[in-house]
Amino acid sequence: MAPLFHPSRDDITLAGVLSALADPMRLRIVKGLMEQSDCMSCTAAAPCPDIPKSTLSNHFRILREAGLIQTTKKGVEHRNVVREADLNARFPKLLKTILASAE
Amino acid sequence: MAPLFHPSRDDITLAGVLSALADPMRLRIVKGLMEQSDCMSCTAAAPCPDIPKSTLSNHFRILREAGLIQTTKKGVEHRNVVREADLNARFPKLLKTILASAE
């Protein structure tokens, strides 16, 4: 399996972040991850239980490649966490403001 | 010519706004419009002078249909203004925070 791609902090772009969050499902995934103190598996972070795995995995890939989440393989699971420090360093208050708008 | 479509305040969605702003050119257009006290024509609000008119008009259509700008026909010109009050009512601080991130 190919290693998972994560952009470096400096390569995270505003257009990429906005585009990745321009989807209600992905907004809910990020919100869900933010409310956890620990990493979450893709299935645990799914906004509803009946989303096909391929759809879910596509959403996580888009979030990861835009620099919104960090994914770590743990056995057969992928564990995810929001890259809050990187995002806040690049775009202060952006993530918080967008998520507040999603309420 | 068909009348220009503008969504009502309540029909402006977060995903639509983020998607419309997920483009460096459109971010610059909105930024330019915000810095003016008055409406601007599409040409005057263009971020650079050599953008084809069709490209520019497509960017303005996307911004308009997402509820970011209000366009009024004035003779042969289209005059544009950012729908700040509507956007701030729907998503407090969102536009300002995104534009600050674009600096």
UniProtKB/TrEMBL annotation, chains A, B:
Record organism: Bradyrhizobium aeschynomenes
Domain HTH arsR-type: 6-103
Origin: domain of life: Bacteria
Pfam families, per database record: HTH_20 (PF12840)
Name this polypeptide is given: Helix-turn-helix transcriptional regulator
UniProt keyword list: DNA-binding, Transcription, Transcription regulation
